[in-house]
Amino acid sequence: MSARALSVELSGLPLVDLLSQVADGECRYDPDLHTGPDAFTAETLAERQARIDAARDICETCPVRDACLEYALRVTPTHGVWAGHTPKEIAGLRSAARSTRKAA
Which residues form the 4Fe-4S Wbl-type domain (predicted)? Predict the structure, then answer.
């Protein structure tokens, strides 16, 4: 988890507005890279890691990365790569944010 991801300030925009921003993401050019194969296609662990790494590279320079991360933090996706993070990483970011708010 990167420090950059933790520094994102939530905008408070309605989810529909965030979703419209996320729709302009770089992932729109190759959505399978970010979501993975369909349920009928096998993917080895090595293939999955290579796909996730490639998706992270694309997310790194995406102009809507912050909006994508905010959206993911708010909807808690169960699959895919969002702003360079897997769902497990996003869950960890949410937990860290909650812990920080409680400590404050």
Answer: 26-92
CA atoms within 13 A on the CB side of 98: 8
Question: What is the C-alpha to C-alpha distance for residues 101 and 45, in angstroms, rounded to an integer?
Answer: 36
Alpha carbon distances (Å) from 70 to 3, 39, 42, 44, 85 = 15, 27, 30, 30, 12
Q: How confident is the model at residue 38 (pLDDT cuts 50, 70, 90)?
A: confident
Residues 6+ apart with CB under 8 A from 92: 1
At residue 13, φ and ψ (nearest 5 deg) are: -65, 150
| b/e map 6-40, b = 16+ CB within 10 Å | eebeeeeeeeeebeebbeebbbeeeeebbebeeee
